[in-house]
């Protein structure tokens, strides 16, 4: 049994050198809380090394629909294929709310409330072939529109890699090179190039 575990760890670590990073990825997110279950879309875009933006749009197709924008920092575990991440962001939505009255032991239930809140996220992510699988916990602190100050949600997301990291970096280098080249041209060179293109 130990040999099997060590073999698995060796493969995981050795594959890390050739890990398939992603520039951006799109997929399906399933969320679960003590209030409801949601289905949504997740789009993740790498903006710097180990730093991504994630946009989430999710709904229970009844009374709760929310949109989230998060900035996430990624840290590798054993291999670049396996990492944990954490971050924060902003949440907007239409949600139901439950207001408890301690005096008469009643709950007032409303829905359609416009809400604004702050999200936090902590997750574990694994990249295999062209698929990114992640498990996370995403607590939300409400600022406007909901009686509950805090709600937590666990999520599972499966994303398909749209652009590999190497491809994304190559495109960024090409853009930077073109920008430097254009800014390095003198006025007379740019003026002459206008006439050359017309001929």
**Which sequence of strands runs across the widest sheet?**
1-2-3-4-5-6-7-10
- Give the distance, in angstroms, between the N- and C-terminal Cα atoms: 75 Å
* Structural Rg: 23 Å
* Overall mean pLDDT: 83
Unreliable stretches covering 5 or more consecutive residues? 8-20
Task: Give your account of this protein's structure.
The structure is a single chain. This protein is of the alpha+beta class. The protein has a single domain, classed as Porin. It contains three helices and ten strands. The longest helix has 20 residues. The N and C termini lie far apart (75 Å). Keywords: Signal.
Which structural traits does this protein have?
single chain; 10 strands; Outer membrane protein beta-barrel domain-containing protein; signal; Porin; alpha+beta; 199 residues
Write the layout of secondary structure elements.
Layout: H1 2-16, E1 22-32, E2 37-48, E3 51-59, E4 65-77, E5 79-101, E6 106-128, E7 131-137, E8 140-144, E9 150-151, E10 154-164, H2 165-184, H3 187-198
Antiparallel strand pairs: 1-2, 1-10, 2-3, 3-4, 4-5, 5-6, 6-7, 6-8, 7-10, 8-9
Region (Disordered): 164-199
Biased composition (Polar residues): 189-199
Protein name: Outer membrane protein beta-barrel domain-containing protein
